[in-house]
Specification:
With 154 residues, this protein is α+β, with helices and mostly antiparallel strands. The protein is 27% helix and 40% strand.
Length: 154
Amino acid sequence: MNNFTEVELLWLEKRIENRIRFGHSVEERILDRRRRVLSFAPGSIFAFVRWTSNDFGTAISRIDILRAVVPGQRCSTVPYVKPGGDILLRLSGWPKVERVLQLIDAVEALDIDPADAAPDYWHHVHNRMSVNENPRPYTKARHQAWLQRQRTMR
């Protein structure tokens, strides 16, 4: 058994797509043409997007922003994620998923890796999106405050 959080990615054309939107995997295993497993070190943050369709169109659109857990740590179960993760954000429905993807793009536009953004920001996004408010944008000042807090905690 390893100490990593494993995420199974699956792609079946026009039916299922599980993909990582951001995050830094430490290992990759290719299972076959359509499946692979990415491993994430404890504490790393990644976005996992799941999309499923049927004969009538899109059936499921979901995004989870997760923090990989330390072995033995309590965690929430998430399909395709073993053993699970610390959920920072979990939304479903295309309009909400699309909005989160736009927010991720906005963080990247600041030359900040979304995996390095303050985890509290993703909680904030979740809380605002669940009551249909627009979350405040992530800023360089907020990121610098997060980095300073990280340095102080060490």
